């Protein structure tokens, strides 16, 4: 049996057992990976860089993770799934108007960016479809989820326009690009604990947006 196969077998066994020390070290590697992916970019970061930052040699790193893609996957997937679940919850909440639902998911996203920093920013920054990663089954699944989430956001906007809460002379796609473009660009400058909170930033952006998008030309308080 090759050394790589033996390490893979030991890794699978350790993950199945779920020991506290093993879980803690994997979490540390995920944290370091997210940090380096954001600072250096996914393509430029090597598994060896992550191991060096964690004080582990290459063989030991493979005891905890099988590949750089595995770390990237775990860095972003949970956050994306949580945001999709929140969007689905709001979609089903008929007690809120469509513009209220749009507002809620907007603020919730920025709060999520802050709480899961820098995991979500890594995904936004890398723009997976530009990484050639769609060749893997996992990447195709992530892109499918991303498109589904995007469709939900467009649906919120379309319904808010149809309800007369937003102007109808601007296309829903342009509205989405303007609104969520402000949010997503924060990956270039936002750092938790320095300046405004994620919620404060989102509410400020929302007020700028809604003042220009209300059908009657008057913003909401």
UniProtKB/TrEMBL annotation:
Highest taxon of source: Bacteria
Coiled-coil zones: none
Membrane-crossing segments per the record: none
GO MF annotation: an example: transcription cis-regulatory region binding
InterPro entries reported for this sequence: Homeodomain-like_sf, HTH-type_TetR-like_transc_reg, HTH_TetR, KstR2_TetR_C, Tet_transcr_reg_TetR-rel_C_sf
Domain HTH tetR-type, chain residue ranges per copy: 23-83
Full protein name: TetR/AcrR family transcriptional regulator
